[in-house]
Structure formats: structure tokens, C-alpha cells
Amino acid sequence: MTTTPAIVCNQTAEKILQEGQAELTSPAETKTLRDPYGRVHDYIRISITDRCNLRCVYCMPEEGLPFFPTDKVLSGDEIIQMVENFARMGISKIRLTGGEPLLRRDILEIAQGIANVPGITDLSVTTNGLALSRLAKPLWEAGVKRLNISLDTFDAARYKTITRGGKLAKVLKGLEVASTLPFEQIKINTVVIRGQNEDELTAFLRYTFDHPVNVRFIEFMPIGTERKQWESQYYGIEGVFEICRQNGWDYAPIDYAGNGPSENYQIRGARGSFGLIHPVSCQFCEGCNRLRVTADGCLKSCLFWDDEDSIRESIGDFEAFSKKVHQVLAVKPKNHEMALARQEEVKDKKPTWRHMSQIGG
Ligand code: SAM
Ligand code: SF4
């Protein structure tokens, strides 16, 4: 088994993208959605609510955010019809996120409706896990194939601090229940925050020894947070390899099916695996295959930038819908430049005004 000496970007921005070479596909021509850089888009992340029962320090302000009134949020029927439209355009993978998606009373109807859309082959959910002990089974029965559960610490007091009030035991229970079900994948999303949980990387790696999950270490992204907070709490996750070496753990890259930008590895003998998502220290835009829909029905081509357009009004009119989607895709930026991260260094574009809970991550 070979060990990897240092973090290796699987995305070197210039390698594949040949700027200007790829033609933007027009709605009538093909079922494949491509952006101006030739990237095929087959994946939509839908934030089905901006509401949440937690206030994670990297995601929401302590006092919360003014939530959209109910009539501003896409209804279940609109979401399903929107997915039908997307499926006609070549989208096959859907992730439901939020806010906290399991807070929606109609989450099971939405999941089942999407799972039944012809052409949708992969339905997944990202959740804080608080309601999973009750909902994991019905979600699986509704057609959800993969789960991402957010968990940044194994320490109850720390969990309470990071999430501003959450109960760790509830998430662990949810994780336990989900693990008894035949989900194709369970991933744990761990945002690494300097001064809060970087000392638990070892514990999370150890967790993969006995648990068939994929722990994904995620860098704190400068979205919706104060610059000062982000600068002081950002932690580059490449230290994970050093931890493996110090512990004498042999690890190797693995292929781990998924739609995300993570690079995946497995420690020899472990049942689970780990992944790195490092949008800040290492650009991951080269293979971007996704669009995002916000809870209020706006389509975003990039997580980071301000550009977005409402598609809600056109959901009932496929031609108009398709045109809107292509318009949004046509201005998709080549990359997010999160490392520059700041308005004053990027002259021609503005970072999004939205908080992560309003986009879905
Ligand atoms: N509430 C659900 C949850 O927490 O899993 C879904 C929505 S949440 C916005 C989706 C993912 O974004 C979570 O895994 C969360 O940890 C991550 N996230 C939120 N803010 C972030 C930030 N500033 N940087 C990196 N990841 C962030
Ligand atoms: Fe809520 Fe998820 Fe944001 Fe935490 S990360 S505040 S659980 S939306």
C-alpha cells in the first residue's frame, strides 16, 4: 500500500478545462447539460428549506436568520415538477439539503416523488441527523439511497457549543439506526474548525476502523461568515496524512463512488474510509458537475458567487424552464476562487450574499 506524501489536488484548474473550446449546448440539441468549459452537469442539490433546528458556528449567526415566509419556499409539488424538468435535461442525481431538510413535514412525499421521476437514479439527503432515528427507515423506504450526516465532534459538550445547542446523543442514535439499514452509502460530514475540533481528526480516522462509513473532512468555507471569524477558524486539512503517518497507519487512495469533490482514502484494515474536501487550500472546480437550487427557487451555478436566477416561475413551462437553466449555466464561472475569497481581491464578481444554510452547502 503506498502512502501519499502530501495533499494531491485531483483538480489542477488548467488540466482539463479548455476555456472557450466547449460549445454550450442548446435546449433542443441534447439531453446533456454542459457549461462553457465543457463540464457535464448531471447533479442538482436542492435546498428544500432554509430553516434549521441548529445554529452551527460556521453556518448561521447565533441569533439565527430571518427565514423565508412559507409561501416563498418551493412547495413539494413544485420541487417534484422541477426535478421532472431537470430529468428531461439530463440530470440523474438529486441531493436534498437545507437548512435542515428533515424539518419539512412533507419530506417523505418529496423524497418518494423524486425517486419516482424517470431518469433519476440517485437520491441522497444531507442532514444534521437529529431526526434520523425516526426518519432513516421511512427515508430509505421512500427511495433515498445515500445519506450524509453532519458531525463535527464526538464530545457532547463540544457538539453543543459548535451547533449552539444540539444534543450529540440524538445524532449518534440517528447514525446507529441509519447504519442498520441498507443505504448504499453513509458519509459523515466533518467541518474542521481551528480551535474547536482539529484535535479530533485522529478520533474520526479511528472511527473508520470499525464503521463502514466515509468520514469527509471539509474545510471551513468563507460563505456567510465574517471574514475575521473565517480567517481565525480556517484549518487546512492536509494534516490528516501526517496524523496517519504518526500513528503508523498505512493508507491508500480509493475509488469511492459519489458525486462530490472529495478525494478518498482508506486506512489499511479499516471498514470505512475518509475523504478530503478542500475547496480553499486546493481548487476543486475542475470536475464540477452540479447546480444548486435554493429554498426560494433560485438556481445557482456556483456555491460561492452571487450569480443566481429565479426558476420558480418557469417550473410549469418546460421550454421557459430549460431556457432559464441554460442561461444560468452559460455564465457559470470557471472556479470559485475561494482562496482569494474576498471582494477586494476579485474585482469583477461578488461573493454570494447568502448564508450556507440558505444554499444547502
Ligand atoms: N442541515 C444539514 C446538515 O447540516 O447536514 C444540511 C445543510 S448544511 C448547510 C450542509 C453541509 O454544509 C453540512 O455538512 C455543513 O457542515 C456544511 N457547512 C455549512 N457551513 C459551512 C461552511 N462555512 N464551510 C464548510 N462547510 C459548511
Ligand atoms: Fe443547520 Fe446544517 Fe447549517 Fe448546522 S450546518 S446550522 S445543521 S443548516
Distance between the termini: 33 Å
- Measured by DSSP, the beta-strand proportion falls in 15-25%
Question: What is the CATH topology?
Answer: TIM Barrel
List the secondary-structure elements in sequence, H or E.
Answer: EEEHEHEHEHHEHEHHEEEEEEHH
Any idea what the CATH superfamily is called? Aldolase class I
Cofactor: [4Fe-4S] cluster
Enzyme class: lyase
Protein name: GTP 3',8-cyclase
Keywords: 4Fe-4S, GTP-binding, Iron, Iron-sulfur, Lyase, Metal-binding, Molybdenum cofactor biosynthesis, Nucleotide-binding, S-adenosyl-L-methionine
Explain what this protein looks like in three dimensions.
With 361 residues, the chain is an alpha/beta fold. It has one domain (13-358): Aldolase class I (TIM Barrel). It is built from 10 helices and 14 strands. It has helices at residues 76-88, 107-115, 132-142, 156-163, 168-179, 201-210, 227-233, 239-246, 318-330, 356-359; strands at residues 33-34, 40-41, 43-47, 93-97, 122-127, 146-150, 185-192, 214-219, 251-253, 263-267, 273-277, 290-293, 298-300, 309-310. The strands form 2 sheets. It has a 12-stranded mixed beta sheet. Strands 1-2 form a two-stranded antiparallel sheet. Strand 10 and strand 11 (273-277) form a beta hairpin. The two termini are 33 Å apart. Mean pLDDT is 87; it is low at 1-29. The structure holds S-adenosylmethionine and iron/sulfur cluster. S-adenosylmethionine is lined by residues 52, 58-59, 97-98, 100, 126-128, 150, 189, 191, 218, 220-221, 223, 225, 356-357, 360-361. Its cofactor is [4Fe-4S] cluster. Belongs to the radical SAM superfamily. MoaA family. [4Fe-4S] cluster 2 binds at residues 285, 288, 302. GTP binds at residues 45, 95, 126, 187, 290-292. This is GTP 3',8-cyclase.
